[in-house]
Design a protein that fits this description.
Layout lengths: L4 E6 L10 E7 L8 E8 L29 H14 L6 E5 L8 H5 L5 H9 L3 E2 L9 H15 L4 E3 L13 H9 L2 E9 L2 E9 L1 H6 L11 H15 L4 E7 L3 E2 L5 E3 L1 H8 L5 E4 L10 E3 L3 E4 L7 E9 L5
Parallel strand pairs: 2-15, 3-4, 5-6, 6-7, 8-9, 9-12, 12-14
Antiparallel strand pairs: 1-7, 3-15, 7-8, 10-11, 13-14
Helix pairs in contact: 4-5
Length: 320
């Protein structure tokens, strides 16, 4: 039985603050003597897509592969369970999300104060998610209601938001401040799994902040400076083996059609202590990880739960 311990560090009000298909977002060989291997299953920009979406046509939900419909939380949950079972030789499995888990469908509008996305993600086995710009579409008080209801209904994934500040004296932030003090929203997450110690923090990028028009008095300190702070804290104080960033920043397509730049890539170049960036915001379906500085992986799985990303990493001392 895997021994696992979990700790959350509060975001103090006075501080900065089945998928239809599976693709492999990069992978290394299984662990040998002296090496440690782990797997990250990841999504981003789910946007309340509870059911699979096809090309404006009906589909048969009880039959597979007879239409072009992709995604849906049921298929995603099934695939997560299957990959967890299949990855026993690839070490402990983490399940994370890169933000914008809400809004985008009629479900998102109808259930905005029930926190159904977080409740379902918890049941699907997610360890953590972060806040994207669309989480603020109904204002900071609307976001707080969704998280609060989900918390009261039971366990939710850790909501990790490192460069998000709820400290302003504004009545609309009262509930977010309370949730931060209670640990429902945290600056970072640390846990032990499979003999390794993991540290996860979450960022929202500059472009996403620009589109977070409903954020009100919430402020967003610089992502790169916050990342430096988080890496130092996680490495030196928490003594983690692996640092993972959930970044709602995004990627840029080059003239050659390849994705080699963007906020998530520049983040790792500026802060090399990050082992893996699980990205979001730009809805980019990477079929291979972008390797930065020769040792850090940047991945993103597209949108709407159409894909489940799988990243397998082997640690050999300080090398990935």
């Amino acid at each position: 039985m895997t021994h696992e311990t979990l700790s959350r560090r509060d975001f103090l009000a006075g501080s900065a603050a089945g998928a239809a298909t599976l693709f492999l977002s990069g992978g290394l060989s299984a662990a040998a003597d002296g090496k440690k291997t782990f797997t990250i299953l990841h999504t981003n920009d789910l946007h309340s897509n509870f059911i699979g979406l096809g090309p404006a046509s009906d589909y048969s939900p009880f039959q597979l592969n007879d239409d072009k419909t992709r995604g849906g939380f049921a298929r995603l949950a099934t695939l997560i369970a299957e990959r967890k079972a299949a990855n026993r030789t690839h070490g402990p499995v983490l399940v994370v999300d890169g933000g914008d888990f809400s809004m985008g469908t009629a479900f998102g509008a109808a259930i905005r104060e029930t926190g159904a996305e977080l409740q379902l993600m918890s049941r699907m086995g997610y360890d953590a998610t972060t806040l994207g710009n669309h989480e603020y579409d109904f204002g900071p008080d609307g976001l707080a209601k969704a998280i609060d209801v989900a918390v009261k209904a039971g366990r939710i994934p850790a909501v990790v938001a490192s460069n998000t500040n709820f400290a302003a004296k504004d009545a609309a932030l009262t509930d977010l401040q309370r949730l931060a003090k209670e640990g429902a929203i945290c600056r970072y997450l640390v846990f032990d799994r499979g003999g390794m110690r993991f540290g996860i923090f979450g960022l929202i990028g500059k472009q996403a902040v620009f589109y977070a028009s409903g954020a009100g008095a919430v402020t967003f300190p610089d992502a790169i400076e916050t990342a430096r702070e988080m890496v130092k804290l996680l490495r030196e104080q928490e003594k983690v083996d692996v640092v993972i960033c959930l970044s709602h920043g995004g990627l840029d397509k080059g003239k050659d059609g390849r994705f080699t730049d963007g906020e998530d890539v520049r983040l790792v170049k500026a802060v090399p202590g990050i082992d893996a960036v699980i990205g979001g915001h730009t809805h980019t379906a990477l079929e291979e990880a972008i390797i930065v500085n020769g040792r850090s992986a940047v991945v993103q799985s597209g949108k709407y739960g159409e894909n489940l990303g799988e990243l397998v990493i082997t640690l050999d001392g300080d090398k990935l």
